[in-house]
Amino acid sequence: MILAVASGKGGTGKTTVSVNLAQVFGARVQLLDCDVEEPNSHLFLKGTLRESEIAAIRVPEVDESLCNACGLCSKFCQYHAIALLGATPLVFQELCHGCGGCEKICPRGAISEKDRRIGVVETVEADNVTLIQGRLDVGVAMAPPLIRAVKSRLLGGVSAILDAPPGTSCPVIATIRGSDLVVLVTEPTPFGLHDLKLAVDMVKELGITFGVVVNRVGIGDDRVHRFCGERKIPVLLEIPDDRRIAEAYSRGELVIDALPEYRSRFSTLLWNIKELRGKKRGANHVRS
Amino acid sequence: MKIAFSTSGENLDAPLDGRFGRASKFILYDLEKEYFEVIDNQQNLNAAQGAGIQAAEAVVRAGANGIVTGHCGPNAYRALCAAGVAIYNCEAPTVAAALTAFRAGVLLPMESADVEGHWV
Known about the structure:
The complex is a heterodimer of chains A (288) and B (120).
Chain A: E1 2-6, H1 14-23, E2 29-33, E3 48-62, H2 72-76, E4 82-84, E5 89-91, H3 101-105, E6 111-126, E7 129-136, H4 143-151, E8 160-163, H5 170-176, E9 181-186, H6 190-206, E10 209-217, H7 223-230, E11 235-240, H8 243-250, H9 255-258, H10 263-287
Parallel strand pairs in A: 1-8, 1-9, 2-7, 2-8, 9-10, 10-11
Antiparallel strand pairs in A: 3-6, 4-5, 6-7
Helix pairs in contact in A: 4-5
Chain B: E1 2-7, E2 25-30, E3 35-40, H1 51-61, E4 66-69, H2 74-82, E5 86-89, H3 95-104
Parallel strand pairs in B: 1-4, 4-5
Antiparallel strand pairs in B: 1-2, 2-3
Helix pairs in contact in B: 1-2
């Protein structure tokens, strides 16, 4: 099972849910920190770095002796990463998404590709958890290719928890695409509800089964719960607004270690996730 | 010689837009024939990235030999340099005032970009 933990709003508890869930998983599990602009899952796991690999995207290089300035490459690039303004095209590497289209479209074979480093992919072993995290280089704005590089390390046959970046844009889509189930973490505040609605629309668009975790229950109001009830969205777990959880988090401790009374809640979450997944699979099975 | 002025309007009394890539229009003024045409740059207003590069392509295609604008970022600067187009900084309030300044020879060509990328 590939499980993605996402949210619309930032700071709702994606990492808290991801790392604690990985720890109560009970079997070997892969934890992928796809928040490559600020990976922090590693702060909660004591393990050893097994591997660090450089991740790169392929950017174009123009052989001026072969180019006849036809401009097809520049017209093709939707990101304006290659532009024809003088005798030969100019390449703007930092705008290139590495699709390879310019190389394919060039009728004279004047474009080849070279690697441009965007970050590193690190693998950390911590008991039952294999943490794979992306770390985007400072100044690089291209998160999705690095997220895909992190996901390419996934081993088949071993379950995985994907800790997504916040929001609903490309990096989140790159993370949750292809997962079996998405857990949307939110908080019962107007901001939490607003961004939860955006996240729900996004996950529905992708057609992935999902449920909600409501964190910091006790603050705000009941609109998140009412929204979930009206839309028949399963609430998989509620985490109370407990200052001790924030204190444990600030020390880099797992909630289930610092406050053992919460261990059963995360076990329940895991059980609810498996049940939701089973239900959907059953429904699909009946339909087909 | 044709000079492009970044602007939000369609005549010489219109304000000079301080932004190059995300100006909504350019007034392309022909100094020999004393007339101008308006180049639309609307498509770039909401471009996620590469607005300066695309604006540079548009004004170069239209035949501009020089650009008068408020500021110019690194990508647009590199693109315009490659095309051999000079960029002039100007803080005049209107296109007409900028044109007067250009004719008087008080505007100097920029020697590097003067703002960071994604400057607003």
